[in-house]
Amino acid sequence: xxxxxxxxxxxxxxxxxxxxxxxxxxxxxxxxxxxxxxxxxxxxxxxxxxxxxxxxxxxxxxxxxxxxxxxxxxxxxxxxxxxxxxxxxxxxxxxxxxxxxxxxxxxxxxxxxxxxx
Length: 117
Known about the structure:
117 residues, mainly alpha, 434 Repressor (Amino-terminal Domain), 67% helix, 8 helices, 2 domains
């Protein structure tokens, strides 16, 4: 995500790639096109719910846009609150994982989840 200068820059780029007008995006996310303009120009910040709506309207991963905004999705916050000992410990122990390590961990989690069905 560091390749984007700002959330506004990312949103504008994604919107332009979709050949979507400001008004089209605004209509999809139930905002005024003026608000979208202000967000794209980094004149205002917006809440997590609006960022998720914008990401979904632009077919972009909501978690990635929230990460750029230094936010975490509410479902992730709930998991952390429900497991206050396990989740932070897990995250700290995996902080030095590379992409290959994460892929291996994802496969392991998928296998565990298959066994629970």
